[in-house]
Design a protein that fits this description.
The structure holds two protein chains of two kinds.
Chain A: E1 2-4, E2 7-8, H1 12-35, H2 52-63, E3 67-74, E4 80-88, E5 94-97, H3 99-107, E6 112-117, E7 123-132, E8 137-142, H4 154-157, E9 166-171, E10 179-188, E11 197-200, E12 211-213, E13 219-227, E14 233-238, H5 239-251, H6 260-282, E15 284-289, E16 292-297, E17 302-308, E18 318-327, E19 331-334, E20 337-339, E21 342-351, H7 356-366, E22 384-390, E23 399-407, E24 415-423, E25 429-440, H8 442-454, E26 457-458
Antiparallel strand pairs in A: 1-13, 2-4, 3-4, 3-6, 4-5, 5-8, 6-7, 7-8, 9-10, 9-12, 10-11, 11-14, 12-13, 13-14, 15-16, 16-26, 17-18, 18-21, 19-20, 21-25, 22-23, 23-24, 24-25
Chain B: E1 5-10, E2 16-22, E3 26-30, E4 37-38, E5 49-53, E6 59-63, E7 71-72, E8 81-83, E9 89-92, E10 95-101, H1 115-139, H2 147-176, H3 181-208, H4 212-216, H5 218-237, H6 242-271, H7 293-312
Parallel strand pairs in B: 3-4
Antiparallel strand pairs in B: 1-2, 1-10, 3-5, 5-6, 6-8, 7-9, 9-10
Classes of the chains: A alpha+beta, B alpha+beta.
């Protein structure tokens, strides 16, 4: 549900919708400008007394020479295929943006190239210096010297920014022009494996990689995503990760463009290793699902939801109660690949008036397999499966289990794995367990899969 | 002692058009009316052929010096003298003749099945088929039963069976002169029962032994049943070139089965297998002992090797990134 904010080319219908809104907003702004006298030059000592909009003006004035639009161009056509934002952090032209803004170029440098566009109309080529796929950050370099640049807010770096502080997100939403958005700092997102700042304000596609500053113009975070199922729920990467990546880019050797894909693979591998280690360290407990028990993660960032068909009309012939627990992790790798998620789900089925054959048929239909999206064939291989009857121990119910995996074509040793297991001890009730792991190594998948199967037991 | 010989003149579609009994050791054939057998074919000479008994008592045909000559029925070489031992067919002009001795062996008498008996079998099989399908539908019924769900497919199947038997009946009428509709209907119903049972068996065995491939390739068995069915229909029709037609039918069935396998392989190449537990049965149907977790996860290495291999191949076409 989190949506990265790089703005891609859209269908014409949607685009005209955007244009119409632009016109309405434009007329309104013109009317306001006529009614009000031109703003006076900012007066620093009297910040407290000034209306809030004056702070925004001052912040934007400060930011204007320091922000850029980052465009991914198709080599062959010389036209943009996606846009995002970025901001300068050093006098020699280093700028921060999101990894997902430059992902097309990083994975396919022969087809795409990067270009920046400054608010004053200056344009030029960009070099990709470093990436941090896990935190969705990248460092790019403009070939210009003696540029003004942003400083990081020391309170943000130390994690001491107070909840409720007004902060300002900047960028170029939907390619409509550079924009400043006022919003509220709401601390770090609860129940999240990745550290993300919860920003209450409207951020939109195209603002990805833009800076978010405090009222004094110092950076507290980087625009990265928003929730599509909420209003004004935005997410920022904390400034500390951007500062760390800058350090890495300064010290380390620059990224070799043709090797960027290998670097992405290395980082994804390191990310999953750390993630599954954190999952192990978070601990597991046994949870009750009807008369069965299954595995549940005790990590605070694994959240569970339950569902039932009890209120269905007409009355169902099989009662189904489902518990679904997932890590709310999602790593943007490329346009079609979001990875880094793990999900454990258990459905307890109990026949109401079905016989054993009908119940088995019902279960066959319910475990009918995930639909495979053929479009991702370029990024993932086809799915291969292994199925068998399994009994983890003599005291445990026999299971009918299927292990399915797809490999990432571009990243060796990473897989999407689905493990389905159905208890085979009762005629008219059963537990259907499903473990889904994205972007995982075979060893980590086997380790968790094994724990998952071994935890399934009959408790009566 | 003058033995009897029979000369048959065949029509263009292979039927016997005329049959002459010759009570002599020699017969003459031609277009002129002084012959023993008169053939109305402009490509036959007025005095075309002499058939007589050779020194060994076997019949021999002899060309009397004609323009179009004398051939064995299926022969391509022009003959002056053609011994008829064992191969009674002769071709002159566009006409085929068959010469038989009185000692020529004939097929034994065939048992006549009274038409009512076929019909009774048809009824029994038909009831068995529909009872079987009703029973299986009931076993697979997971929602509320409704007449639509239960009866519509059965009516569809009945129409297909009657139509299929009707087409074969038409063939029989053309080649054999009688429709044999009950026989064809019986073959069709038997085939339908065989397909239903085969499918049930394949799915059950696939579950019992946790062997996905059996269910995956069960369709091959259905194709084999189709081939056997077509053979049974053809044998009943008794066309003139039975072997040829059976071969053609077999080739079609093999081509169909191959097409299906190729499509399956292509789909597998592009999207792979589905994460499914297959067609399940009640747990009592399990035959193989469950594997240990060790064995199960060890086997995932083979799955890994398959996707690793697929990874190095070019991605299938049509899988382009969507905007």
């Amino acid at each position: 549900m989190r949506c990265p904010l790089a703005h891609r080319a859209r269908r014409a219908g949607r685009y005209t919708f955007d244009v119409r809104h632009l016109l309405v907003a434009g007329l309104f702004a013109a009317g306001a400008a006529i009614a009000q006298p031109p703003p006076a030059a900012p007066v620093a000592p009297e910040v407290q007394q000034l209306p809030l909009s004056t702070t925004a003006e001052r912040v934007y004035d400060h930011a204007k020479p320091r922000i850029v639009q980052i465009r991914t161009l198709l080599q062959a056509a010389g036209r943009q295929t996606s846009i995002g934002s970025g901001f300068l952090v050093s006098a020699d032209g280093m700028a921060i943006t999101n990894y997902h803004v430059v992902s097309r170029f990083a994975l396919d440098p022969r087809t795409y190239r990067l270009e920046y566009l400054a608010p004053d109309g200056a344009k030029g080529a960009l070099k990709l210096l470093a990436i941090d796929v896990g935190h969705d950050l990248a460092v790019v370099k403009l070939e210009r010297a003696d540029l003004p640049y942003f400083a990081f807010d020391p309170r943000a770096l130390a994690g001491r920014l107070p909840k409720g502080e007004r902060i300002y997100a900047m960028g170029n939403p939907l390619d409509l022009g550079f924009t400043i958005v006022e919003g509220t700092f709401n601390g770090l997102v609860d129940k999240s494996y990745d550290e993300r700042i919860h920003f209450s304000g409207a951020i939109n596609p195209g603002m990805s990689g833009g800076p978010v500053t405090a009222g004094d113009g110092r950076v507290v975070g980087v625009n990265v995503a928003k929730r599509l199922d909420g209003e004004q729920v935005g997410f920022l990467v904390p400034a500390s990760y951007a500062a760390a990546l800058i350090e890495r880019a300064r010290k380390g050797s620059a990224l070799v463009v043709d090797k960027a894909r290998e670097e992405v693979g290395r980082q994804l591998d390191a990310w999953q290793a750390a993630f599954y280690e954190a999952l192990r360290a978070g601990g597991f407990r046994s949870s009750t699902i009807g008369p069965y028990r299954g595995l549940e993660s005790a990590a605070p960032w694994v959240t569970c939801w339950a569902a039932t068909n009890a209120d269905q009309v007409p009355k169902p012939r099989t009662a189904v109660n489902t518990t679904r627990c997932s890590s709310s992790t999602g790593i943007f790798v490329s346009d079609l690949i979001l990875t880094g998620r793990v999900e454990l789900s258990y459905s307890y089925y109990k026949a109401i008036d079905l016989n054993a054959f009908q119940f088995a048929k019902e279960l066959s239909q319910r475990s009918g397999g995930n639909a495979v999206d053929p479009r991702v064939g370029k990024r993932l291989t086809g799915q291969e499966c292994h199925d068998d009857f399994v009994a983890a121990a003599p005291s445990r119910p026999p299971l009918r289990a299927t292990w399915c995996m797809r490999a990432y074509r571009e990243f060796e040793g990473l897989y999407n794995v689905t493990l389905l297991a159905l208890t085979q001890d009762q005629d008219r009730e059963a537990l259907l367990a499903q473990l889904t792991m994205q972007g995982v190594s075979h060893a980590n998948a086997v380790a968790l899969g094994r724990r998952f199967l071994e935890a399934i037991e009959w408790q009566r | 002692m003058a033995a009897v010989m029979w000369i048959e003149v065949l029509s263009s579609d292979g039927e016997v058009a005329a049959r002459e009994r010759i009570e002599s050791d020699e017969a003459r054939v031609g277009r002129a009316f002084n012959n023993d057998v008169v053939v109305a074919d402009p490509h036959v000479a007025p005095n075309h052929l002499r058939i007589f008994r050779g020194d060994d008592g076997e019949l021999v045909a002899e060309d009397l010096g004609t323009l179009n000559g004398l051939y064995a029925e299926h022969g391509a070489r022009r003959m002056t003298r053609l011994p008829l031992k064992g191969e009674p067919g002769i071709r002159i002009g566009r006409t085929v003749l068959r010469v038989h001795d009185s000692a020529h062996p004939v097929a034994p008498e065939r048992l006549l099945t009274p038409p009512r008996a076929h019909a009774r079998w048809d009824a029994i099989l038909g009831v068995a088929l529909f009872a079987l399908i009703l029973f299986l539908n009931w076993l697979n019924l997971t929602s509320e039963p409704s007449a639509n769900v239960v009866l519509l497919p059965m009516i569809g199947l009945a129409i297909v069976l009657f139509g299929w038997a009707g087409l074969w009946g038409l063939m029989s009428r053309i080649f054999l002169g009688q429709a044999q509709y009950p026989l064809h209907l019986r073959i069709a119903i038997t085939a339908a029962i065989a397909v239903v049972l085969w499918d049930l068996l394949a799915e059950t065995v696939s579950y019992s032994f946790a062997w996905r491939e059996i269910a995956d390739y069960a369709a091959l068995g259905a194709w084999a049943i189709l081939a056997a069915t077509c053979w049974a229909h053809l044998a009943a029709v008794q066309p003139r070139h039975l072997k040829l037609e059976v071969g053609l039918m077999l080739a079609l069935v093999v081509a169909g089965a191959t097409m299906q396998l190729v499509t399956k392989a292509e789909t597998r190449e592009q999207v792979g297998q589905r994460a499914t537990l297959g067609d399940l049965r009640p747990p009592a149907f399990r035959v193989v002992a469950p594997a240990s977790a060790d064995e199960f996860f060890k086997d995932t290495s083979a799955t890994r090797a398959r996707v690793d291999k697929a990874r190095l191949k070019d991605p299938p076409s049509g899988g382009a990134d969507a905007e």
